[in-house]
Amino acid sequence: MKPVRIGLLGLGTVGGGTVNVLARNREEIARRAGRAIEVVQAAVRDPGKARICGTGGIALCGDPVEVVDNPDIEIVVEVIGGTGIARELVLRAIGNRKHVVTANKALIALHGNEVFAAAHEKGVTVAFESAVAGGIPIIKAIREGLAGNRIDRIAGIVNGTSNYILSEMREHRRGFDDVLGEAQRLGYAEEDPSFDVEGVDAAHKLTILAAIAFGIPLQFSRVHTEGIAGLHLEDIAHAEQLGYRIRHLGIAWRRPGGVELRVHPTLVPRRHLLASVDGVMNAVLVHADAVGSTLYYGAGAGAEPTASAVVADLVDVVRALTTDPENRVPHLAFQPDAMSELGVLDRDEAGSAWYLRMTAADRPGVLAEIATVLGEAGISIEAVVQPEPPRGAHFAKLVMLTHTVSEGRMRDALGRVERLDVVDGEVVALRVEHLEDCPA
Ligand code: NDP
Ligand code: HSE
Hints:
The protein is an alpha/beta fold. It folds into three domains: 4-135 and 303-338, NAD(P)-binding Rossmann-like Domain (Rossmann fold), CATH 3.40.50.720; 138-299, 2-Layer Sandwich (Dihydrodipicolinate Reductase, domain 2), CATH 3.30.360; 349-432, ACT domain (Alpha-Beta Plaits, 2-Layer Sandwich). It is built from 14 helices and 17 strands. Strands 7, 8, 9, 10, 11, 12, 13, 14, 15, 16 and 17 form an eleven-stranded mixed β-sheet that branches. The protein has a six-stranded parallel β-sheet with strand order 3-2-1-4-5-6, sandwiched between helices. Residues 134, 159-161, 188-190, 196, 201, 300-301 line the site of L-homoserine. NADPH dihydro-nicotinamide-adenine-dinucleotide phosphate binds next to α1.
């Protein structure tokens, strides 16, 4: 049988990794797909640039429209990134009745509803395994492996760059900017690395995970998003002393009144498996009614781990080339006419326990004053630690853990605590999740 001809939009970290994996595992891949897969053309910005892959047999071009309009190409792999030209090219490829494989989580999270509707109309597939958690086959696991379950909660470390930075800061006390620079050199970070460290990339991925887990539309704008950029080394250290580790988590949680969608630095118990996920590794914990908890772990970024997922999508698409489009796995796991009406809860309705750090006057009665304000808001304190203040200091640090409370109530109480004369400056507040098997 003739090889399937594919065209790449982009030949950087992920595109280059894809070419290398396709070349190295050519025979194994053909045995799985039923046909060989051949890259015939690739669009790049600078055709003269050095590449991480060989380009023999691949026609390089500077105009990506050439690739999507090339009649010889059956599958287009979009690894340019962003939501501008990438959206136009993907829609044009679909319009030309080409299947698309993309690693672009921003595109899927922001424009996926439009892209999938167009693909459905043209009877083509848009595959996006590599858009979430790099090489971990999490889309397939949730969409197909857990199809018999009612999924209650997903909690995941889904940004490799942030996890790499947090791990290096904690283990080696390295500075934030230094580690971020290294993550960029290693090809982990987004073109705009603020997407990584401000939590936007994780929010893109959580949007996708929530859609396929709960059968809701993609709703990126409803994700409450905080990144790791404002984290202090001292909070990482206090968390350790209290038996926790700070992880940047994306959480999608089906509650009785709707879904919580949030991304933020989180204290997780040090004994929990998510606490051991270091470096560029990702992990996604899924709790579902029949199977219970399942955990998926692997490299979350980088050339070949991501290529692993891109090539798996290519094999899936090739296998399905001759099938009736109506009988393919739905893009977002649920049939397009069977999406749920379940709403997304407001940020203030989300419930969690909290870690608080504040600077307060070092004299008798101060702790009671603060505890009274929290108590009046119905917030109970689980633990208080007062690290030894420097000799002669009039202010001391107070570190507290609270029991679970809604975010709105905590926010009001923190405003009142900060207005107390005995409290100096802002209170640092981080959420704590125990991630026990009691999701509802
Ligand atoms: P890179 O910056 O390494 O590669 C982007 C490629 O696109 C380059 O080859 C570049 O050309 C080409 N390109 C950019 N603009 C144009 C244009 N206008 N016309 C033609 N070619 C263009 O990005 P990555 O490979 O890291 O990421 C690609 C996508 O994969 C992004 O959506 C990213 O979020 C996603 N992703 C990345 C992962 C990673 O670990 N890096 C992991 C999972 C997903 P040139 O080389 O000439 O500059
Ligand atoms: N910048 C992303 C990350 C790439 O660090 O996780 C993988 O999606």
